[in-house]
Amino acid sequence: MTTQRTEGSLYTNIVNGIATIEFGHPASNSFPSVLLDRLTKELNLVSKNENVSVVILKSEGNNAFCAGASFDELVAIDNLEDGQKFFSGFANVINAMRTCSKIIIGSVQGKTVGGGVGLAAACDYVLATEAASIKLSELTIGIGPFVIAPAVERKIGAAGLAELSLAATEWKTAYWAKEKGLFASVFETQNELIKETDILAQKLASYNPDALAEMKKILWKGTGNWETLLIDRAKISGKLVLSDFTKKALSKFKK
Question: For position 123, what pLDDT does the model report?
Fold first, then answer.
């Protein structure tokens, strides 16, 4: 069952130290700004929750994991301030994931594009299905994956980022993503993914929470400048989205 709410849905369920955060949107689990803001706030809440040891981040349904940012909002941008604010949405989520004191497991059941790839990259450990192909298509509309690039590069390196972003019309398979280090494991079915995600989460929840928190710090060493870096990247995208090239490209997609 997937949500039909135009602003999307976000639910958190906490059981035995495991907080499962599930997001959804009728447009292939894409993110309008209001849903990105809700996810940012929810991550900050679970970070401070002493009853939570580990977080599972997943999306609704059995099709796409995440189609990135809301296309409707993207095409409506008509000034620099709104552009920066729009692209800051994923910047804020990634920074919330980075600073969250809990280990975050990503459960990726299907295709993911743009900002969705950034979400997966900002998880500490990702399990996926064979259907979880990935693509960074931003260059095709005259912008780029600038906000999420640091998170993606951190996982798959500069060469992987170049291959993924410059081949902007190509889908990369889940096994490509595993080979590059974005995914830790790939399973044939969603049922296997759900089962193995639960097993991993239960194991992590049984470990010393202080040790997990220290491990989290080590995993994200050297990213302290992201608070400003990602917002600066949002400014670049916010400017480019107003360009004639991008406006023409977006108008073709609208048609």
Answer: 98
Residue 98 within a domain? yes
Domain range enclosing 165: 9-254
pLDDT in tens, 80-90: 999 999 999 99
Instruction: For residue 1, tell me if it sits in a domain.
Output: no
Average pLDDT over residues 27-38: 96
Q: Which residues contact 1 (CB under 8 A, 6 or more apart)?
A: 60, 61
Which residues are CB-contacts of 193 (< 8 A; sequence separation ≥ 6)? 107, 108, 109, 127, 128, 129, 187
Tokens of 28: 């292939």
Tell me the CA distances in angstroms from 15 to 37, 59, 81, 117, one per residue in order.
Answer: 24, 18, 41, 27
Count of structural domains, the chain: 1
Q: Is the entire prediction scored with pTM above 0.85? A: yes
The answer to whether residue 4 sits within a structural domain is no
